[in-house]
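ASSEMBLY PREDICTION REQUEST
Request ID: AP-0331
Submitted by: J.K., bench scientist
Number of chains: two
Total residues: 680
Priority: normal
Notes: Please return the full assembly, not individual chains.
Input sequences:
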Amino acid sequence: MTLPEGLSRRTLLVKLGIAFNTAIAAVLAVPIVRYLMSPVIHERKGGYDAWVSLGNLEQFPSGQTRFATYRNPVVNPWDGTTGDIACWVRNVDGKTFQVFAINCAHLGCPVRWFPQSSLFLCPCHGGAYYQDGSRASGPPERGLFEYGYKLESGRLFIKAEEMPTPGSACKSKNSDIVREIKPCA
Amino acid sequence: MRLIKTVVDWLGVRLPIDATIQETAGHQVPRDTASWFYVFGSAALVVFMLQIITGIMLAFIYVPSAGQAWNSLQVLNHNVTLGWFIRAMHGWGSDFMVAIVLIHMVQVFIFGAYKFPRELTWVVGILLLIVTLGMAFTGQVLRFDQDAYWGLGIGASIASRVPILGPPTVNLMLGGPIIAGATLSRFFALHVFIIPGLLISFVVVHLLMVLRLGINEWPMPGRVVRKATYIKDYHELTKRDGVPFVPGAVYKDLFFGAFIIIAIAACAIYFGPFGPSGAPDPTIIQTAPRPDYFFLWLYAVLSLLPPSMETPALLIGPVIVLAGLILLPFIFGEGEKSWRRRPIAVLTILLSAVALGTLTKLAQFAPWSPVMDAWSEIPVPSEFLQNRTALERQGALVFKLKQCHNCHSLDDQGGKRGPALDAVAVRLTPDQLIRQVIQGGGNMPAYGKNLSPAETTALVAFLETLHPAGQLPARDASRTLALDPQDGTAPASKP
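STATUS: Completed
Returned structure:
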C-alpha cells in the first residue's frame, strides 16, 4: 500500500485524534447550547404569560387610576422581592379597565401617576403619558405597555407577561410610533 | 549565604525560569521611554491585581442571590470588620481602572504607538477596554440595589431594540421573563468567571506583544514609520540609546503604581463604599435610577437624542465607533508618530474629551428629568406672590397642583425639563400661553382635558405676571390697534 506524501501512520493517528475530539466537542455542544439557551427555548412554552389576580374590584374605583402589585407567575425561591411586580390599574368607567406596565416605554424606568394632572411621568429621561397611556411628550416612541385583563368573580385578572421592553412588546398593525397602546391579543 | 545559594541552585534545576526572568527584566528599552508618560499601562495592571484581591475578599461574604445580595452588602458595610473598606477599595478601584485604561489609550493614540508593527497590540487593547467596561457594568449589577435593578431594565430595553435578535437576547440576558434571581446569578458568573478570564488572557497576550515588539519609542517629528525599515531602526535605536527595563525604567512604574493604590485607598477611606442604595424591590417606585460615573455620558445621550434618532444611534453608533477603533492601526499603520505632526489626531482627542466631559457633567444635573416632588415640596418664591390679585394667586395654586413645577422652574427652583418660567410672559402673549397650556406641543403634554376653563384662566393670569420689572409682557401686535391710544403702555414707546 502506498501512502500519500507526508502521511505516516503517526500523522494519520494525530489527525484521527483531532477529528475524534472535534466530533465529541460537536456532540457535547448540543446539550451545552441548549442549556445556555434555556431562557429562550425551554421556559418560553409555559409561564411567560399567565392570568394573575390583582385583587378585588373594590380596590379600583371607577374613574381612577390605582397602584397594584402582583407576584410574578414564574419565580424561584431565591428571587426575593424581585418577584413582586408593580403596575397601574385604570378603571375607565366601572366596566372597562386599562392595566399599564410600570415600565416606561423608553428604557423601562418606573413611571409614576399624578392624578392631579392626569399624567404618568418617568423620573429617568422625562417621558410623559396621558391617563389612557398614550404618549404625551419626551423620548418614548410609543404609549405605555398594557396588559390584557379579564374580570372574573369580582376580581381583576391580568395576563402577566415578561417584562415589557420596546422590542418585545407586540407590534400593533397600526404602526404609528406615537400612539400604540393596543394590548397584546 | 551558602544556604541561599543552595536554595537558588535547587530551584534553578527544578523551576528553570531564571533565564526568562532575566531576559524580561533586562531587555533594552529606548532611553526616553523611561518616562512618566509610559506608566499608565502598568498602573492599569496594578489596579487590576488590586481588583482581583479585593474581589476575592468580597466573595467571602457576598451572596449572589436576588433575595439576599442586598442584605449581604449591608452586612459587609456594617457588620464585617473593615468590610466597608474592602467594598470601597473595590468600587473606587473600578472607577480608577476605567480612568487609567482610558488615559493609557489616549497616551498610546497620541504617541502613535498603534502603528506598525503594534497594530494587534492596539486591537487587543480595544478588547481590554471593552472587557474593562464590561466589568464596570456587571459590577454595578452585583451591587444589587434599586439603581442596579432599573439599570438592568434600561440595558434590557436597549438590547431589545436590536431587530429580530433583540427579544431573545433580553431573555438570555435576564435568564427568564423578568429581572430576578437568574439575572443576578448570570451576572455574577460574568463578573467573576467569564469576563475576568477574558481579561487575564487578553492581558497576557497584550504584555507578550509589548515585550516581544518592544515599547514604543518616544515619537520625534520627522521620524516616520515605514514598514520596510521600522524594525531595523528600532533595534538600532535601542542598541545605541537603550537602557535595561530593570532598573532603567521600572522604578517610575513602581512609584506610580504605589501612588495610585494610595489614591484609591484615600478615596475609599474618605468617601466610603458605593451604596447600596434602596433595596431591589420593584414595587418601590419612588426612585430615580442613575448609572455609575462612567456610564453617565450614555445617560445624557439617551435623554437628549430625538426619539426617532435614538434606536438607530444606539444600534449603529457603537458599531461605527468600534469599527473605527479596530481599523485605525490598519489604515494609519505608517507615517508620523509625533503629535506635533498629527493635528487631526489631537483634535479628535480634544473633541471626544470635551463631548464626553460635557455629557457627563450634564448627566450629573440631569436637567431632562422632572423633579418628581417639586410640586409638593418646593414653594413658589414669595416675590411671585406679593401684590398679586386673588385670581393670579389662584393661578399659582393651579401651577403647583397640576405639577407644572416638576418640569418648569421658578427662580431656579423646580424641574428643568421645560423652559424656566421666570420671564415667560415676555416670550408668549396671553393667547399663546392659553394655546400652549391647552394643546401642549414642543415636548409639553396637552392639559386641555385636565384643566377647567376657570383653572386655565387663573393659570394664565399667574403666568402673565411672570416678567422682569420694567419689561412689558408680550402682546399681540394686532391688538394694539384696538387699544386706547391714550393708554399709558402705548406700543409706540416699544422698540
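REVIEWER COMMENTS: Confidence is low (pLDDT under 50) at residues 171-185 of chain A.
SIGN-OFF: pending second reviewer
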